[in-house]
Amino acid sequence: MKTKLFLAVIFFISAPLSAQIVRPDQSSVKQPERELYTLSGFRHGISFFPRLRFEGVQYESSETLSFDTYHSLDVIYSWLEKWAKEYPGLIDLYEVGKSFEGRPVMQMTLTSKKSGKDTDKPAAFFEGGRHSGEITSSECVMWMAYYLLEGYGKDPEITHLLDTRTIYLRPVNNPDGHNLYLNTCQSNRSTVRPVDNDGDSLLDEDTPEDLDNDGMILTMRWKDESKGNLIADPRDSTGRIMKRVPAGKGTYLSSSEGIDNDGDDRINEDGIGGLDLHRNYPENWRPQHEATGRGFTQGGAGEFPLSEIETRTVVEFLLTHPNISVVNSMDTSVPMHLRPPSTSPSEERMYPEDLAWYKIFDDIGKKITGYERAGDVYNDYGRGNPLFGHGPDFGYWYYGAIWYGDELWNGARYRDYNNDGETDQLDIIRWDDEENDGAGFIEWKPVKHPVLGDIEIGGFNPKFFSQNPPPKHLEPWVRNEGLFNIEMVKYLPELEWDKIESKRIRAYKTDSADYQIKISVRNKGRLRTALKQAPLVKIVREDRIELEFDTTELEKERPVFRVIEDKKSAPVRQRSSYGDTESSSIILRATRNIPFTKGGSVTETLFTIRLYNRQEIKVRASMFSTRGGVLKDREFVLK
């Protein structure tokens, strides 16, 4: 049976497969752009597909941006460029890398340039479009950009936010996958780089086929009363919903739409690409295969940590921008506020004070978005099953930050209409009928399969119902998630000078005197200037106060002042104009480390200065915090 099936399938697709063998790089094939969409790279399966345009997707940019439709990659990038030209005082737009197929991965920095450099402010990073088909996340990032830009200068809260914080936005981390998804019937988990998903040494050889040419990969069902494990659900009088029963007790078998191209009795198990960018982070990474048979493995992990440029550019950017305290890298479609840890319960691995902040954000998120679930990947998402190489784990244990990997859209699981304690397909299809004009379910229709014979094809729309909201229901999901992200930005540290006080504490007969300088800094924000995990992994330096002494107009041949060490305090680091640290030299700067400042509290430190010969000296104070930002040039005179 297997041999016959394989031969029949090969006969059905012999033409395109032969072309693939003699022409491994199909990027050179000349086809009308509007007819075929061609992928780069060698694969053993088909690399070109009919180019499609889906209803509810905008493919050309217009004068307005609305969120009752999805946007192609070209439209998204055109808006980024438009905003960068329109708001030069708020936006920097730049390329962080190139994808497998050579597309730019674009990112924007959003902050008021008048109020300081982006790296001198507390920051957050938000990313969408990591998983190619989870395009709702890209729309959320675009909604955030639109909301913030429209509100700046009009809404006092948004204006203050962009004056005091920096927001880094990457709408589409995986442009190849995003483009494939919105221009063909194909969909995949992550990038389009060819991968052997089924271990047969062939790359992407079993891609789904759109057998009825309706532009969607739906579900096939066919009658098989000897092996069948599905029946028409007796609760659904329309006959659309299937119910699973034990094998041999049913009427139908089912599969996603396509044929078994490689003769392994499986359909569509090795489609385009197959890596998972959300299993490619270095923290707790595991390979796809290991030698003993007794260790943990992780499907889709890639050849090594950060093997994929899309993941690597995220990590490189974050490590070179340690001012970032909050991250959300979004997907679909649970929905859930998803956070670390991914391999163990929260209480076993996290500092209690850091976990407390995560739980605060869990509650805030549920109130804003209405999601029922918020919690760690291991328990609340994986039900005790670990995920390896996961972004939130990198975010906390490696990067020492608040990191969510939120899931948007509920797959239309809005209500338990029949109050049976479960929101299942019967409830989903009722919502579709009543709230979505029935557009989410494609009626079963008969089709002739080249191997299976008479089949039916139908089911829920995989792209704009199961994986993402129908376009007209999109905006509430991206808005609510975007508002949660912006709320987290509001919790970032916000430093300001509190007081700078000086007083003479001792006088000497030689016309010298000792002065005590008390400097205090207030954190008006809510998060501490660093989570407890951050200094442990040395992603942040200690916060510090620096004094710079202006000795320009003073007597250079005689000592002007010296900094007196206090044995009870942290040591003062001194830098002199002559490169030594002797007390008699002319010191330009003195620095003292201070504790990380909690939100809503004040941290102070003391300097003791000995001033010689009744002179006075101008002093400038600055405060430096990796994640709290920079306060500069608070001037005062010591005399």
Provide a short characterization of the protein structure:
The chain is an alpha+beta fold.
Q: Would you give an account of this structure?
A:
With 639 residues, this protein is of the alpha+beta class. It is built from 14 helices and 29 strands. A 6-stranded mixed beta sheet has the order 5-6-8-7-13-17, sandwiched between helices. Mean pLDDT is 91; it is low at 1-32 and 576-585.
Largest sheet: 6 strands, mixed
Shape: elongated
Rg from alpha-carbon coordinates = 30 Å
Placed side by side, the strands forming the largest sheet appear as 5-6-8-7-13-17
Q: First CA to last CA: what distance?
A: 98 Å
**How many beta-strand runs?**
29
SSE layout and pairing:
Elements: H1 2-22, E1 36-38, E2 48-50, E3 57-58, E4 70-71, H2 73-86, E5 91-98, E6 104-110, E7 123-127, H3 136-151, H4 156-164, E8 166-170, H5 175-183, E9 219-223, E10 230-232, E11 242-244, E12 252-256, H6 309-319, E13 324-329, E14 331-332, E15 337-339, H7 346-349, H8 352-369, E16 374-376, H9 377-381, H10 391-398, E17 402-404, E18 407-408, H11 425-435, E19 441-449, E20 453-460, H12 462-466, H13 474-490, E21 495-507, E22 513-523, H14 533-536, E23 544-550, E24 561-564, E25 573-576, E26 587-593, E27 602-611, E28 617-625, E29 629-638
